[in-house]
Amino acid sequence: MKKITVLLFCAIAAFSLISCGEEPDEPERDLLPEFVKSNMELVWADEFNGESNEPDPANWDYNVGGNGWGNSEVQNYTKDRENSYVSNGTLKIVAKKNEKGRWTSARLTSSFRHAFKYGYIEFRAKLPVEKGSWPALWLLPQHESYGKWPRSGEIDVMEYATNFWGKKTYGTLHCKAGSGGNAIISNYIEIEDVTKYHTYAVDWQEDHISWYYDGELLARYDNPNREEKNWELWPFDKPFYIIMNVAMGGNLGGEIPKKLKSCQMEVDYVRVYANK
After folding, report:
1. Which helix (H) or strand (E) holds 5?
2. What pLDDT, in 10s, does the model give residues 59-101?
3. Long-range contacts of 197-200 (CB under 8 A, 24+ apart)
4. Residue 27's pLDDT band (cuts 50, 70, 90)
């Protein structure tokens, strides 16, 4: 009789989760491209499986403040656990409106903790689709060897902004030869449901950078290897660090609905593979 009671309780609990719109964690699928499996090895990762709700301070620091970040964004980035925390094996980055009607969020960075030069860098994440949100997974140079942005480059692994792009998920490069709305390369794919887990990655090598979403090639940019001033087109020969953030409003986030109170990006892991 006791066993039947336990089973009945579990069934009721499962039904309650489904009826409330919550789903069990999606099983991880093997979406790693074959060339990575064959020719590369895992050199660094954060699986967000720690016992603390704080993202591992050995891996992550924070950019903080609310100065618009060059894009007229409205959020104030904080280190607070209400804006970024680890639970149930994933990292949550939460943008939320406080009691004064002001938006806070988090921007995690591996700067001066982990920087990488070349490799396959992959994120597994669920994205917010609320209007006004602008989640991004991206890379910046650890040292501005060629000068201030965009001269030293920027690698955007994933950007998503419902107000501006609809259902398009973008990968982009910025450098002196092309940046902002005239990036040297920018391409997109329409993913059916970004609120479910997908993988977003770049294969960054000495001669090219390619974007892979769910293990499928999206776009490729080749190193032009010019004899003079190649850095203007290819500053991507220095170590870069990782950034994960949810911006609100601004040039790409756009207008935020007055009724919106919060939105969230959830990251299952970040993994970096290097050539064997």
Report:
1. helix 2-19
2. 999 999 999 999 999 999 999 999 999 999 999 999 999 999 9
3. 197/26, 197/28, 197/124, 197/125, 197/126, 197/268, 198/124, 198/125, 198/126, 199/31, 199/122, 199/123, 199/124, 200/122, 200/123, 200/124, 200/125, 200/137, 200/157, 200/158, 200/169, 200/171
4. confident
Say yes or no to pLDDT of 261 above 60: yes
Q: Under a CB-based contact definition with an 8 Å cutoff, are residues 133 and 261 in contact?
A: no
Half-sphere exposure of 146 (CA within 13 A, CB side): 23
pTM, to two decimals: 0.91
CATH numeric code, 33-275: 2.60.120.200
Domain ranges in the chain are 33-275
Judge contact between 127 and 193, C-beta under 8 A.
Answer: no
DSSP, res 113? T
User: What tokens appear for 9 in the block?
Assistant: 């309780």
Peptide bond into 57 cis (omega under 30): no
Catalytic positions: 154, 159
Paired tokens of 128? 């917010």
Side chain identity at residue 14, one-letter code: A
pLDDT band at 173 (very low <50, low <70, confident <90, very high): very high
For 12, phi then psi, to 5°, come to -65, -40
